[in-house]
Structures are given as structure tokens and as C-alpha cells.
User: What shape does this take?
Amino acid sequence: MTPVFELPSVVVDRVVALALEEDLGSGDLTTEACVPADAQAVAHAVARSAMVACGAGVAARVFARVDASLAFEAHVADGARVEARTRLWTVRGRARSILMGERVALNLVQRMVGVATQARAYVDAVPAGCATRIADTRKTTPGLRALERYAVRAGGARNHRDDLGAAVLIKDNHIAACGGVRPAIERARAAAPHTAKIECEVETLAQLDEALAAGADIVLLDNMPTATVIEAVAAVKRAGGRALVEASGGVTLARIPELARAGVDAISVGALTHSVPAADVGLDFE
Assistant: This one.
């Protein structure tokens, strides 16, 4: 199976090049000393536990950059659930080259699999019949945002804004700097492109009323208890129901069902990326 990967190669290659420079900048003393230059090998990436597969395309780019003669084959599509001992992908060719690329490939894949697996757990926690979306945040690893956000999608969740220029999101410090919710929204509306939605974070029901009156397109309910979220959703409906409702702030997996049943349109979860443990994927030589 040829790995299907939707990210532009220029984005992936920039990450891969930096990671390889960190690991191979002064060569590989052990491999060059121990492994004959003409030795051939076959190595399989294996899931050590149940997980959601992700990142085969990135691994392929790592090995191709180390040695273009290496043959790479993906066995499982990104986003597929796999059990322990499943072979995810195989690389064949010069043993030295495989060993030189092994750590970088696994570092990136383990991170992406961890994110995809976490995202799937949060998506699965949304009760049947609820249309609530699970989304990530900008709490990503510097330099790895594109890979982590791809992994979020592979896990079935959605992406929030990609960067600060992608959308208007008025947060608490913007409100403080502008002197209130209404002036912040009014200034954003006047300055932003006509294609941009205006999202405003609110911490109280009073702020919510102010944001709705000012014409916010999306309201982000920040760190509200579920009972208050229910009140907020009802308030949005009384105001005409035009604004989308997003819940965020300290969201745990256990709270997903109750927040979804409260009627929010989206739940943004920093934990999809900011504190995910690396998945246990190993590279086994035949």
C-alpha cells in the first residue's frame, strides 16, 4: 500500500530535514563502525498496543531523505484502528540507512499516533445522536503543528484555526485590552475581512449576552461548569440561535458526553495535542 498523505511534501520535508540534522549532523558513529556498508535489511514498524495508525507518509519521507534507494510499504491506512502486534509499515534496503533513519521516523510516528489515538477517544465519547464536533487548539508542539493537526484529523476530530491569521478569536486579554466585549467585537467586525467569522470567548452569562447583542458569530464558553453551559445554550437559542456555541477550557474525556448533551456545537480540547504521550511503536529487524 502506498501511504496516502494529504500534507504538502514541502511542509513535511522541512520538519524531516530539521529532525535528521539534529540526529545525523555528525554522522552515526555506531552504525558506521558496526554495520557493513553492503548489508541489507528488512524492518517492520509494529504497534506494541492498540492504537490508531498515523504517520506512515512521514516515515516514508524520513527514509527517502536518508536514502532514496530504500523501499517503503505501508500496510495500514492512517486513521485505522489496529491491535497490538499489527505491522504498520515496512522498509527494505541498506541496513545502515534504515538504522540512521529509525529514531527520527519513530519519534515523529509515535507522536502522530499518540495524537490520533487521543483524538479518536474524544470523538468516540460523543454520545450517539449528538452532532457536536471535537476540535483541537493551537496548543501544539512548536514546529510540529502541521503533523499534529493532521493526526487530529486522522483520529476523526477537527481542526480549529491553524494560526493567528486564520480567524478572529477574541479572548479574555483582547477584551481587557479593548475595554469590554462589545467594543472588541465591534472593532473586529470593522477591521476583519467580510469573509471572516467573529468568535468571542466569554466567561460569564453576562458576557455572553453582550457578545450576542454585539453580533458575534461564534461564542466560546470558557471554563464554564456544565449547568452554566446548559443555560448559555438556552440563551443563544432565545437570541435567535444564529451563533454557534463552542465549549473549551479544562475539558476532560469524562466531560465530553455531558457537554455534548448540553447542546454545544463544538468542544475544543487542548489535550488532543499538548500533553499526549507518545504511542509505543517499535521497528523490528528481520
Observations:
- The domain at 9-123+276-285 is CATH 3.90.1170.20 (Aldehyde Oxidoreductase; domain 3).
- The first helix runs from residue 9 to 24.
- The CA atoms of residues 88 and 193 lie 44 Å apart.
- The chain has two domains: 9-123+276-285, 158-268.
